[in-house]
Amino acid sequence: MCQSSQTVHSSNTYCVLIESIGRGTPASAAAVAKGLGRPASEVVRCLYTAPAVLVEKVDRNVAEQLNELLESIGYEARVVEMGGFVQETPELYDISLYLQEASKLTTVANKLSKFIGLSESDAVQALLNPPGVVLGSVSRATVAALEALLDGDADLLACPQNKTLYDVFVGELPEVIRRRLLDDLKSRGIPLLGESGLVASSIEISRLEDIWQRYKANAGLKVVNQAFLRFDIQLDSSVSDLTDAQIDCFRRNTDIPENLLAQVVQAAPVTIIESLPKTSLDRVLDDFYKTDIPVSAHLITFQSLGLKVINAQDLSYVNEVLDAFSIGETLQEIPATLPCAFPEIQARVIRRSLESAGATVELVSEL
């Protein structure tokens, strides 16, 4: 049996301890499970919550053979003598991925599909569905293994499940369901911030579990780990004669080249930081405020963006790209604005694909 927390007291027998999924895959876990006569789900759970005991109370020869097999597959494992050791229950994490570079979508989807056993198309959907939560209830070792596999191709955020708060967002819902949902939140003593958009903030998940179970079939309700929210930082007004402290603040927090800084500052209002995670938001805002730089934060996680095609080298090629994304729109002339909006990350991916097809494309915040 997979055990993530135990003290073992018997002697002259051994166990095999999975320390990390390493380079292994859920597909290979199914083969291991078959060989052990165990449910595949049980073995997969061992892998993702490692370090965990996979097999116990076997003789040394059996343990070493199994350990050798596991390491040949790519898992990190070791043989441990039964008795005298304590395996602590690991802290469990949820993982979110964000594509800073839209061109990395195919690469990241391919890596993710192998790591969690999804089809590549399902992995794409997971990445494009904000806030990009791809794994839950996994150990720090699994976080590290996925981080190593991605090798910087996506921005990975891992949040401990027992150390986070949640926000409640309400989008389009039938009015009767909206009213019932808001009443249920109020009856549980949850303060409401409004009736749509962000309606409740910084709530313990235990207070929301029954709400989620009751309304989760409604796409207009989102209960989101605060740590996975992302924001753009906007410079609200220009700053004349930047001080050394202000220049240092821009250098610490943005990628704006110093030789272009004065020009960017005069272009305000302008976005100076994109897709900043919530975990860094307070620190960055405080830094700007302390140096008297007028900035504001704008939530982009559930932002919808339109796309305007300014020009294109080959209109038919542009339409092929649109068809590949199942947009259902054929452009007859350019410039043209697509008649629908997309989730922020999906809009950026489509724009990148259109640019690769030789088009010049702008993101449009309002259609």
Automatic annotation (TrEMBL):
Organism this protein belongs to: Parendozoicomonas callyspongiae
Descriptive protein name: Uncharacterized protein
